């Protein structure tokens, strides 16, 4: 096996369709390295611990970690970094279990507002919008109640909203989160400016896109198709780009045996 391997980490779900979309995206990656998918939960035998042990047992000495999450504002991204020894261990009680990492960890950033994300969202706008001057755009993210994570979500949503409004000139544009729950209030405010187009910023379709968002908007008038980032083929391209960037950077902080060190990358 190659001394370099890749671990894509996703949230996980008991829904087999959700998992199939993630697995399909990883299979489409144009990369000649061993690549595995680990899940935070919902998939027996596919935890971060399980997949990390498999890669190390097969000979991996450095592992590129690609967190398939919308933003670093996700509570889970911080948990993953702590499990891998990249961040300090959480204070207080926690159900997290640290991963014993012998291989070097090459961390990639989550999706955030990568051009791929803006491209996917723009395509969905084109499918739902007919006259932006008489419509309002509402982006919806999961959000977080945790300090630090909440601010990251706010900044991401603000950046995307600003760029898309500049691009399409909607009558109005805004954003909302499910945590804290601001969705219905924002939808009602934007409805005063034009017909509301609601776009969820989620990695894959599931409970939040199919139930949580429609339930909160019940009784309101809006356009909503419910698509997530997956199964768009550009997600596979983003994973591929993330891996390549991690490997070609000339200098990067990585971790070996739990200690930070600077190494030459791509050699």
Automatic annotation (TrEMBL):
Signal peptide coordinates: none
Domain of life: Bacteria
GO molecular function: lyase activity; metal ion binding
Pfam families the UniProt entry points to: CbiX
InterPro entries membership: CbiX-like, Sirohydro_Cobaltochel/CbiX
Key words of the record: Lyase, Metal-binding
Protein name as annotated: Cobalamin biosynthesis protein CbiX
Species for this entry: Brevibacillus reuszeri
